[in-house]
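ok so i was messing around last nite and threw this chain in just to see what happens. nothing serious, just curious
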Amino acid sequence: MKWMICIKNTGYEASLEARKLYTLEDDPKAQTHGMIRVIDESGESYLYPSQMFAPIAVQNTLESQLLAA
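result:
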């Protein structure tokens, strides 16, 4: 699973929290348009501009704990 950290939530304050980790959903078509799909605060997957996020590496042990939370 890939993780992204929200580095800017301007215009999406109700849907995204800055400095929070989000799981990245695979969506190659969205990526060709400069967008990524993440599970946001609603619990659903939505498209957001990719420049609002930065990828982050998570160790396996931590990833297991994040997924269980």
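not much to say yet. The first helix runs from residue 28 to 31.
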